[in-house]
Every structure is written in C-alpha cells, then in structure tokens.
Amino acid sequence: MPHAGLVVVLPSDPQSLDPRFGTDANSARLADLLHVALTRPGSDGRRVPALAARWEVPDPRTFVFHLRTDFRFPDGSPVTATDVRATYEAVLDPTIASPRRGALAVLSAIETPDDATVVLHTREPFTALLDATGLGVLPAARARDQTEVAIGAGPFRLVEAVRGERIVLRPNPGFPGGPPRIDPLVVRIVPDEVVRVLELRRGGAGLLEDAPEPEVLEWLRRDPALRVTRVPGTSFAYLALNLRDPRLAQRRVRQAIALALDRRALVRFVLGGAARPASGLLAPEHWAYAPAPIPPHDVRRARRLLDRAGFRDPDGPGPRPRFRLVYKTSTDVARRRLAEAIQAALAEVGIAVEIRSYEWGTLYADVRRGNFQLSALTWVGVGDPDLYYLTFHSTMRPPAGYNRGGYASGVMDRLTTEGRRTLDPERRRAVYARIQRRAAHDLPVVPLWWEDRIVVATRRLSGFVPAADGALDSLARASLD
Amino acid sequence: MGAAGRRLLALVPTVVGVATLVFVLVHLVPGDPVDVMLGEWAAPADVQALRHDLGLDRPLLEQYLRFLARAATGDLGDSIAYRMPVRRVIAARYPATLALAGTALGLALVLAIPLGVVAALRPRSAVDRAARVLSLAGVCLPTVWLGPLLILAFAIGLGWLPVSGAGSVRHLVLPAVTLALGMIGVLVRLTRASMITALGEEYVRTARAKGAPAWRVVAVHALRNALLPVTTVVGLQAGALLAGTIVTETIFAWPGLGRLVVQAIDARDYPLVQGCVLAIAFTYVAVNALVDALHRVIDPRFRHES
User: Fold this and answer.
1) B39 φψ region: left (φ > 0), alpha (ψ -120 to 50), beta (else)
2) Does the beta carbon of A362 lie under 8 angstroms from any beta carbon of chain B?
3) Rounded to whole angstroms, how far apart are CA atoms B268 and B285?
4) What are residue A166's phi and psi, to 5 degrees?
5) How many CA atoms lie within 13 Å of A436's alpha carbon, on the beta-carbon side?
6) How far apart are alpha carbons A258 and A250 in whole angstroms?
C-alpha cells in the first residue's frame, strides 16, 4: 500500500534511538514512537499514564506504579516490571555512561513485587521524580548492552536506521488498541531548511515539524495540498543575563532592559506573530501557572531607571552609550535577526550591544560556563515546575544545574526547595505562584515569549494532533487518506 | 626505490602535518564531547569518569602521540557520538562522497575542456561568449544559492528530479551539477587561455605547415600541451571540490563525509572530526599524486626529470 506511508523531515539526526542515551528533542520525538515509558507528559505539564495505568505515593519517598499488561515488544513478549527495573538499573550503572543517570540519581532502591508493580524509593522527598519516569523501557535482556538498543514497545518498531539519512519504522503489531495505520513511517534527515520546505512542496515529505521562516510559511500556506497548523506552544524564550556583571547585578538595570523591549513588535518581526508574550517559565496551560506582570514597553521609565542606577547617558540622544554589553548568539538566521532587534531596542535606552555570533557548540559551551553577558535562549519541554529549582537556586550554578546567570536569592532558594519537597498539589501550586511572582520581580532572566508550535503537513494526513512540545506520538492514531 | 615510491613517501609529511593541525584545532575549539554526551544533568563524578574512559583527562601531548601512533596503524579510535569505530563510520559514508565528488569532477572535465577548446578556436564567437558567461557564473554563484535554485527549477518546476536524498542516479544529478559548476568555471577559462597560447606556438605552426589535418593539430599537438596546466589545476581544485562537498551534501541531504564532519564538529566528536579530516586530506593527497603520474603520461619531459 504505497499511499499508507508517511515521510517526516527533521533537520538533524536524533542523538540516539536508545532511551538510555538520547536527550535531545529529536531523540525524544523518536522515543515516543519506538518506546513506552511509565508515564508521559500531559498537555498541562502533569505526567499522565502510559505503561503505568496508575500510581500512588504512599509516603514522600515512595512511588508505586501499577503497570498495564497489554504492552508488547515487537517479538510479542509482554513488557513487565522486570524490564522496567532492568532499564532503570542500567541507566544508574556508571559503566553505561547514560546522560539520564543524574535525573535518576535520587533513587535509592527499585522493587518489583510482581510482574505488574514497580516501586521506586528515593533518598529524599522528591516530587519531580515523575518527570524522570518518561524513560523508555527496553527488554531486560538487552538493557545492559553497551551498544545502541532501539527495541521498544511503542506504536512503531525500527526497521532500518541509516545515520544522517533516514530512519524507517513500521507498526508494532502488538500495540494496545491496534497497530498504527501509517506504514511505513519514514523519518528523513534534511539539514537545510529551504530544502525541507521544498521536499514538502514537491510531495517528497508529508510532515514538517520545525516551523520555517515566516515568509516561507506564507508560501506554503498558498499550497492547496498542504495544511499549516498553529497551536499555542510552551517553549519559553528569554533573555539570559549574567548577574556576575556588576551592571546586570542591579535589578534596576535588568528592569530597564525588560522595559526597553517591545515584545509584541519583536514577535511580529522575528516570528511572524507566532508567539505569546511571556510572564515567565510556565505557560498559561501549565497546571502550576500563576499570572505575573509582563513588563510593558516603556522607554522613558527604562531611561529613568538607568539614570537612578547611576548610568547616566553621557550625551543624551547623542551617539555615546551609557555602557556596552556583549550579546552572544548562534549563527541561525532567526536568532541573528532577534539579536539585531534587541540591539536596536536597547540602543533606544542608551545601552550599546555588540552582537557576536558563534557556531552552536561554542555558544552552548560559553553559556554553560557563564562566559556571556546577554544571550537569548529557549527552554523546550517544560515539565515539572521543579525546573525553577534547577534554574534559579543559588547552588544550581553550572555544572550543578542551569543557573547560568549566577542568580542568588535567599527567598528563591527557600521557595524552590519547598516546592520540590511539597507533595500536596494545592500547596505546591501556591508555592510556585509565589516563585513566579518573585521571578517576575527579581528578573534573573528577562521573559520574552512562549513560542507557538507550527506544523505543516499534507492534507491527506488525518488524525494527527500537533503537540505543544513537538511530540509525534499522535502519529500512532493518524492515517493517510 | 622508483619515482612513484619516492612520491608516495613524500606524501607522508603532508598527512602527518594535516593530522597535527587538525588535532590542535579540534582541541582549541571551545566545548567538550563529554558535555554534549552527558548533558547538563550529569554529576561531576560521572563527567570525570567518562573523561577518564575517553582518555580526555590525559596530557594533550600524550593524547596527540597516542592519536598519531594509532592512526599510523589505521586505528582512528572510536566515535564518541556513534559509539563505534571511526573507521566503520567513515567507511559507511566515504563511498557517497567519492561518488559525488567523482561525478562532479567527471562532469567538469567532460564539459569544461571541450568548451574551452572551442572557445579558443573561435574567439569572440557565440560559443566563446557563452563559455565566458558560464565560467563567470560558475565562479561567482555560491552553492548555498545555486543548490536551492536548481531544486526549484528541476525538482519543483519541471518535476524531473528528486529534491534531495540519495539512493539512485537521479538523486546524484543536482548535487553533482551544483558541485561541478565552480570547477567548470575555472577549467573553461584555463583551457581557453592555455589553448590560445598553445595554438600560437611554433610546433603548432610547424604541424600545420607539414600538412597535418586540423583535428590532429588541435587534439594532438595543441591540446596535449595545453592540458598540462589544466591537470595541475584539476589537482589543486580537488581540494575545493572536497571542501565543496560539505555545503553541497548539507543542502541536498547527501549522506557523505562532508555532512558527517559537520555533525561531528557539532557533537565535539574529536576522534570522528580527526578521522574525517584525515580521510579528506588523504584523498586530496592521493588525487594530486595521481595528477603527478598523469603529467608523466602527457609530457615525456617529466619522465626524464624523475
């Protein structure tokens, strides 16, 4: 049936098809198709059942998962608690060198009282553990292989993987609820954005997950064979500030930078309108979201704040700036465009910005080491709000966590610690509401926007629901007319 | 030792030089493969352990000497990202790059040399003007622009060829033409100039005076001499051709060595970057050795010199 196959184009290879090793966005997309995990992310940031039909937390250090018994590996063998345990233990084994080991390091013991029950014990109360249960489950016999294992009980099974070229998947016959109707599902790696778009236009691809430039999107919209879908996304774009810099250490300066930016104009200019101005890390769809003020565009107030911070404009509207900052960005066209727009906005209030653009690996290394003053970054896949602990707790400066700007606040430390130790959802929600208001006040980073998710697909594809986080799992229930 | 053996031996310092340069450059670039592999969640002890396993905690000089010693035996180490021997990763991609670069080279020679000859024989004619436009375009048009333009015309507009990917001869056409065009530009101009010079030489006049047929004067007397600088430039241009595969393979999603090296740099996969650059350098050196051998076939004087 030649018409039942679908080609998805991705810009780069997934790091790995093995859930023990892949940590990038494309690995996560493929993992959704090949593997099943205890839980998966829901649309509101909560974990929802997957292999585990339900779970309970009898005490703050114990998580009991009750497994479904109808998930099967492609060879027909059922997925049992033994497989879950073997996979988790393999990740915890230092000789496997799994990048997920850190996320599970809080586990003190794994028990399997029967084939359908897994009990995870943690060393300390840690509510965010559920986020780590998105780990795909491998067959126990293969879980300790040193080489890549891509056998899972997801909706599809791997038929062929040619690195840098294509990954061919076919339905897993034993998938609960019946195997997917798309057969085969081919993931092609096409690095060039223009060529990905042209493949779609020519019919060589049926689904494009990474939104092209706004102008190109308009061109695709005019093609009657294609459907462009836009859904509100949860990826959080922000301006990272290095608080080790004595100027950026002042809240007034950070506030002035936040007020100098016209978010709506930036969204129009950089993203063709496809984003919502953000108040913080958590989007309104998230269960723990609490409204916090979004800094308005107010150039006069920004200038006053800079004056009061002691950075007077030496020549008023003249060319001399109050001070200079270096803005590091990648070589990506859209990122450079954003950098230039921010440079122009900050020039309005008398801050001169020098843009330096680096290849991604170099930029990432610099940001991680705190070797930057300004940089615009994006958080993709925000799950448990414990992320606030990892990004803003004073002990979470790299390499321990993501506090790259070196922010330190006793109040934030106390609140984020309380958040990860509180089990009751309503009390947690109240703690995170205070955290969000605190972050909006202190501005350790300047929130920019939540990026919409734009998916372009052939009109023949039905039943596919674009996910806010870019997940492809609904392809298991989709079909081609 | 024969001339060929001596030539081959002279290539060793070049390859060692390239190996040294790439080792130094790769280690100068900020970023670390362990960071990329383990991500930001990694515990410092795990980072340390993996750095130790990969030998990245040893002194740089020791790492360099180990790399050279292993490379001499053909062992390029294991790829960090692919978790398999570099040799195997490269062996899987090398044929695609050879096919692409080889086809582009073939296309360039088949088109550029006859066009250059005709342009030289009929200066200021329509063919000459067309050759000039083609060579200027070939030299000026960047691949990143030309590639998508050719796709728009031949894959989207006319629907004759696939947009990207590999798997059939049809897939090879657009990337090979894109890659060849720059070389065609250089070779047309060089062949034309070289032929005009040769056609004015005394031996050509003598051949004509002796009543040799026109085709023989052009093909045997003039072209054979005019080809000497052309073959030299073909050897030198092989470097540009191999470098061009990096961009061309990325545009056309061609699964070769050029794309692999970009992926390896992104992942800070030191052994793989080193292996890829060595493979490319070795190819370049081998092509130039072949060009030297060809010189001896074309011009007997080289045989006497050696």
Assistant:
1) left
2) yes
3) 26
4) -155, 155
5) 23
6) 13
Q: What is the pLDDT of residues A195-223, one digit of tens each?
A: 999 999 988 899 998 777 888 888 899 99
Adjacent-strand bridge partners of A63 = A120
Domains of chain B: 92-304 (1.10.3720.10)
Which structure tokens are listed for B269?
């996969």
- In which element (H, E) is residue A328 found? strand A323-330
Q: Could you give the CA distance from residue A325 to residue B111 in angstroms, rounded to a whole number?
A: 53
* A26 contact partners, CB below 8 Å, separation of at least 6: A10, A12, A13, A14, A15
| pLDDT at position A99 over 70 | yes
Closest CA to A339 of A347, A328, A349, A348: A328
| Whether the Cβ atoms of residue A72 and residue A153 lie closer than 8 Å to each other | yes
On whether the CB atoms of residues A327 and A375 are closer than 8 A, the answer is yes
Owner of token pair 């050279």: B68
Contact A91, A149 (CB under 8 A): no
Look up residue B284 and give its DSSP letter.
H
Its pTM stands at: 0.82
| β-bridge partners, A9 | A188, A208
Judge whether B130 is closer than 8 Å to chain A, CB to CB. Answer: no
Give contacts of B46 with chain A, Cβ < 8 Å. Answer: 94, 97, 101-102
Each residue's pLDDT tens digit, A286-325: 999 999 999 999 999 999 999 999 999 888 777 899 999 9
Indicate the SS3 state at residue A343.
Answer: helix
Nearest chain A Cα distance for residue B39, angstroms: 6
Quote the tokens at residue A60.
């703050």
Residues 401-430 of A with CB under 8 A from B: 401-402
- ipTM of the predicted assembly exceeds 0.90: no
The residue of chain A with its CA nearest to that of B154 is: A202
Is B4's pLDDT higher than 60? yes
Contact between residue B250 and residue A192 where contact means Cβ atoms under 8 Å apart: yes
Length of chain A measured in residues: 481
| Per-residue pLDDT tens digits for B128-179 | 898 888 888 888 888 888 999 999 999 988 989 999 988 889 999 999 999 9
Tokens of residue B287, six digits: 């092509």
Taking only the tens place, the pLDDT of each residue in A157-192 is: 999 998 888 999 999 999 998 999 999 999 999 988
Alpha helices in A177-298 (DSSP H): 193-202, 214-221, 251-260, 263-271
Q: How far is CA A77 from CA A70, A73, A74, A172, B180, in A?
A: 10, 6, 7, 12, 53
The answer for residues whose C-beta is within 8 angstroms of residue A88's C-beta and 6 or more apart is: A104, A107, A110, A120, A135
Q: Is A146 exposed, middle or buried (0-12, 13-18, 19+ CB in 10 A)?
A: exposed
Q: What is the DSSP letter of B118?
A: H
Give the side-chain half-sphere CA count within 13 A for A60. 12
Q: Which residues of B touch A189 (CB under 8 A)?
A: 253
Q: What is the dihedral of CA B47, B49, B51, B55, to 10 degrees?
A: 180
| B94 touches A: beta carbon within 8 Å | no
